[in-house]
Amino acid sequence: MFKTKICDLLNIEAPILQGGMAWVATAELAAAVSNAGGLGVVAAGNAPAEIVEEQIVKTRQLTDKPFGVNIMLLSPFIDEVVEVVHRQKVPVVTTGAGNPGKYMAYLKEYGAKIIPVVPSVALAKRMERAGSDAIIVEGTEAGGHIGELTTMALVPQAAQAVSIPVIAAGGIADGRGFLAALSLGAQAVQVGTRFVCSTECEAHDAYKEMLVKAGDRDAVVTARSTGHPVRVLKNRFVKELLAIEKEGISLEDLEQMGAGKLRIAVQDGNIQDGSVMAGQIAGLINDIKPCKEIITGILQDASDQLEKLNSLKGE
Ligand code: TUI
Asked: What is the largest CA-CA distance in the chain?
């Protein structure tokens, strides 16, 4: 059911990748997604290289399936992290928040499949030219650091512009979204927020509960004024931040205000003073369930949906 080029490229059963969410995407989550037939991804985020290496080793203890590491290009430890990924020969590398061009040749030495996450067609084309194996295009519906375009507009334009497989991200949490993404020309989806609300995700229960309770307009964009917009759930911290932004604040001061806020939300469960990154699709998520159920649910739901669409065609 729903075998695509991405399944062959990454040697996975279901064309569903897990988003590389800093602090959230640990070995436990990545292994659970990979064991369920998708591609689990360990997020390096801003973590030092030793921690990333520990997580890679742990993932290998928990699964014998392919998995990936997401490298966040703004990390202060980026060079060391890339070295660890190389040493550990991680099969798939996704990247975020920048251009991975300068690491491409080095990672390809051992045969990594490199899949940058980008928010525009121009960057998708540039990443194709640089030698990417596939490209994740992420719509502004996504959580965390985002671009301007919606998934609906970005995916077909990217699919038309590049020859490598396109993976759609941003706003996808169920079979309807999955099928829509394939209809737009994607060969797979990347799912983030839905996997936060999984049993295996190690984020604090308060974080997961806040996502479950969220409605359609609760995931708002902060830091737009700085050119580095970040989507998070509205809380005390965000209301204060938006008020200060309205008055005008420098990028440095804003970064200072945001420092450490994701960690306190994810690990300590401080969901009022922390940064609860989440996508717009949080409003659709009403439960916490195992990754296996999330993945089989998406595929089953998509299959049912396809039948329904077919019946609309009449004879
Ligand atoms: O990377 C993400 N999402 C993230 S990273 C992150 S950690 C962070 N927290 C606060 C501020 C900044 C980072 C939280 N969420 N998604 C993939 C993504 N990549 N979205 C947008 C981009 C992107 C942006 C610019 C990719 C490439 C790019 O290139 C600019 C250039 O260098 O040409």
From this structure: 62
Q: Dump pLDDT digits (tens) for 79-111.
A: 999 999 999 999 999 999 999 999 999 999 999
pLDDT tens by residue, 208-221: 999 999 999 999 99
| 105 contact partners, CB below 8 Å, separation of at least 6 | 131
Domain boundaries 12-202+287-309, corresponding CATH code? 3.20.20.70
* Of the candidates 85, 104, 257, 229, the residue with the CA atom closest to the CA atom of residue 170: 229
User: How remote is the CA of residue 115 from the centroid of ligand 1, in Å?
Assistant: 14
> Hey, what are 286's tokens?
């009403």
Please give the mean pLDDT across all residues of the chain: 96
Q: Hey, where are the domains in the chain?
A: 12-202+287-309, 205-281
254 CA to middle of ligand 1, Å? 16
Q: Is the pLDDT of residue 315 over 60?
A: no
Closest among 80, 72, 82 to 21, alpha carbons compared: 72
What pTM was computed for the model?
A: 0.97
Verify whether ligand 1 is closer than 6 Å to residue 97 (CB atom): yes
Distance between Cα 141 and ligand 1 center (Å): 14
